[in-house]
Amino acid sequence: MSFVEKMSLSWLIVLAAIVAVRGFTDSDPGPGAAAATPLGGDRFKIEGRAIVPGVKAQDWVSTARVLVDGEDYVGFLRTDGGFSVNDVPSGSYVVEVVTPSYRFEPVRVDITSKGKMRARMVNYIKTSEVIRQPYPLQIRSSGPHSYFMKRETWGWTDFLMNPMVMMMVLPLLIIVLLPKVVNTNDPEMRKEMEQSMNMLNPNPELPDVSELMTKLFSGSKGSSKASSSKGTRPAVKRR
Amino acid sequence: MAKLILLLLKCILLCGTVYAVFEDQVGKFDWRQQYVGKVRFCHFDAHMQSSKKVLLATESNVFAALNTRTGEVLWRHVDKTGPEGNIDAFLQNGQDAVLVVGNGRFLRSWETNIGGLNWEAVLDSGSFQSACLIGQQGTVKNVAVLKKTAISLHYLSNGHQKWIENLPDSDTVDYQTVYSGGNSEVYVLGVVPHSHIAIVAFSGDDGEILQQSSVEAPWLSSIPESCQMVDQDLLICVDSTTMSLYTLDLKLQLQLNQIPLQSLELEVDPDFRPSLVSHQPNPAKQPRSEFFLQLAPDHYVLLQFNNGQLVVLRDFKPALLVSFATTGEKTVAAVMSPKNKTASSINLFNAETGRRLLDTTLIFTMDPNGGKPEKLNVQAFLKKDDSVGYRVMVQTKDHTLTFLQQPGRVLWTREEALSDVLTMEMVDLPLTGTQAELEGEFGKKTDGLMSMVFKRLSSQLILLQAWVAHLWKLFYDARKPRSQVKNDISMENLSRDEFNLQKMMVMVTASGKLFGIDSKTGGILWKHYLENIPSNAAFKLMVQRTTAHFPHPPQCTLLIKDKDTGLASLHVFNPIYGKMSHVSPPALPQPILQSLMLPFMDQDYAKVLLLIDDQYKVSAFPSTKYVLQQLQEMASSIFFFLVDSNQGRLSGYRLRTDLSTEQIWEVALPTETQKIVSVKGKKPNEHVHSQGRVMGDRSVLYKYLNPNLLAVVTESTDLHQERSFVGIILIDGVTGRIIHEAVQRKARGPVHVVHSENWVVYEYWSTKSRRNEFSVIELYEGMELYNSTAFSSLDRPLVPQVLQQSYIFPSSISTMEATLTEKGITSRHLLIGLPSGGILSLPKMFLDPRRPEMASEQSREENLIPYAPELMIRTEWFVNYNQTVSRVRGIYTAPSGLESTCLVVAYGLDIYHTRVYPSKQFDVLKDDYDYMLISSVLLALFFATMISKRLAEVKLLNRAWR
């Protein structure tokens, strides 16, 4: 038996609940600091400077922000590229300079309850590993963001260098050029070739590539003697 | 380590083939609109005559500069949401803008030309009251910030504090405003409600109290509401009970001088609180001696203080809004007065004489579907002949900004309501007449053979006709210069495209304004302002009838509910044209708990909406006899559930035939330890193509596809980092059976969940490792399917197999959604909104609990990526490249007519629309498809065969002659 079952969310209540949760995260003093500093405890300032080599700070600071642990604390960049994020309680934070045009590496900043600062590399896997970085922060951009994939452009060289094409072209060359180099009309040569063919192909019943090739060779020279079937057809036409 | 690198390398190789944007696709099918929010403070950049900038500070905690010529955002700074980023005051001095932010916590100075910060100062705690610039000898050097208990002065050049002084008797006196008339004295005015005004004068140089006094004013309760500063240190107040104006000279501070309004032959409208509007063009100089007095909602009087005498300069009735503006030495007053129902005129008046300036009339036409004008911002400038010209920015109740110039030309409009979209739907556009004709042909099958043939021929003829018309239009347009050719969409030529890629986006905003936006261009096709929407309303938008049922018009229903009282109302409208439907919605006298759309329709093809009120009674809309009969038949198979997060209760109900309900299950979660944060079901329009997954050994692992499965997320009430946890419960919504339960210890929210197909992905903050983590749960039935024809919650004896895996994510996230396609064949991606503004398209393949630790032959066969703990964020995966979307609140995904293509709308402060191809465009030619190459190769082959044929003939002929 099949049931038509249909439900939807009690969306209103859920919405209310989500609002309540948002409220709580806003007032939360931050991770790692929940026990150390209650709200209204000491607040500190994270300072630093962001540099894009070769670009004047004025040209990009208007699009940039400093985010501490997502959007928990927000700082803005001064016209010289410097920044300070105020009102941060003690704890450990990931500080990130975000702008749509340039890439900056995030830095982890630890603040003790006395206000001592330390900056280190972000390592999410080994969280306790310490590779010191300068404080006040000096965040240097590693260049513009790469947002786009390169289109595969079509060029003759790409086409010719394609292994499939190479595999096609090489045998073609052999087919065309070999008969010119080797004189197939020479009966001795023919004999030699046939012998080698027979050695390669112990079963004469099976038509194979080599046989076809010899047929082709003879055909290209225009001689009708090579095979009887090929020779008779033009003969019929001649009449 | 080497192994890890190898793994990473493999990942990169695999990812290289995954979707990304190409540079030439920029702007081809995506668009972004940037908003700033409802304007709270507005200043025109006046320090340069030729400036094209207007600075806005908004209620969304955004400070932005707009180009006055185009209305585009020049730069924008988005602060934290909530009270911590709230902009309390905005003062402008030359090219610096000084902002007081976060209830007086920060003082920031912005360089407005480049949009960078000059300095930021942290102020002492205390609730903010007022701020003003302090001028001295014609120059402005300081800013004063008044808090509840203290006043501080700061240098404008670097933000350093000049001095801070406590206010005397701050426990009894409510200090409300600070004022400086340009002579280094700083007056702080406070009030003891219904008793007296307290005035303290500080020296601007060192903060010494120069004077302190109090003046009796038993009628006064709030200074900012009823008082203004005019002329030379003169405080003027208006009181409605005594019908009088009061003046007080701050220098002399003797007593209030009462001027009855009757002596000026003025009368206040009963039940109206009169107010004053004054103007101080330069903070280093005294305010103007002219001011407006508002006597009624549409009645203003321009008054002047002339040698201690009040003079009525001009009476404005009717007048909606007034404003002062200064340019050079000239000050003008702008007055907006209604002209007729849809238009009002704005005129300029000389502030000193009250005389009307010639040729300054500007007509403002109001949108009949918009709100009333709320505020007037005038940008005045001197013309070449020294007369005053002006432009005006009108703010209306529906958060629209309209920038006009004489004689009423709209330079630009901005719909700032769109900065706060709450919910949206995408609706298919209607078919054109010809398309409908074609579709109709396949509908009926009763006709005879001949008539069918004729029908087909005639419809083909119509198609041919349309095609010729299209060609003609193309030809005609080609001759015109490109600038004139507009392919803008209007209501008339609105029709579905071949692949149903263009849709109508119906957006519901917090202000109560509804928008219909064309998804191709982002143009607003219709807007409708719903008045009297409660400020805390919750909305739910439902599509009751799609465009597929011609000639019945499509129909959307918006459920508007007041969150406090629970009382709701319905707004029924046509989503294509935005018009109110003639269908009258039922009145809902009871608070509504739950609403659900049923999959069956009434005889007019409208889906049935069920509403459950707080008495657990069910009402249907539409509620025709046919529907009620259908409901009775179906009642035994209609179930619904309710969530009460306050009491931690989930309960399931069943519908009875008499439309009452019966509780069939209840799950209680102890509210002392945890609370329900969110409940997610599956999308009703989701299709799953494959029932199982083919394993490496060619056996099939069947998915557990329960359409009634709910993912309930709970968070612990204990927020200590050692004890906090996040729980997830998978529960069947029909039977209340708990399918699975998982707890993430040492974790806390906010939790973002996506629930789709047979998997649930959620993200949380790990307090132990201080990082964001993703976790994925997948449910499988096993190697055999229990009942493969239909799924029933009531008949599923086997418990599904549950697989789970977790990953590290190197950023926090704002929101998360999964892509959705027509038939569900295309692989799924997760769209993740990041706080940086990027929207990351993360293949679901990376969140697969079957990712093995060590790659084996079978796992390779299955294309499983070996497990790596950290997920990567690659900017190539950003679907919006550098078009960042600020404060993403939601991502809406909709299938298109192409299986490969999913339409995505991200909304927050900005709106961004694009298409994504999770498995690349496998069903259409790539847009870089080389038609030239393929046709030239074909042609070349064709000619080669022709030539070789000819050659062969020649050869045969030659041979014949031999």
Automatic annotation (TrEMBL), chain A:
Belongs to the EMC7 family. The chain crosses the membrane at residues 159-182. It is a single-pass membrane protein. Component of the ER membrane protein complex (EMC). It is found in: Membrane. This is Endoplasmic reticulum membrane protein complex subunit 7. SUPFAM superfamilies: Starch-binding domain-like. Residues 56-167 form the ER membrane protein complex subunit 7 beta-sandwich domain. GO terms for molecular function: carbohydrate binding.
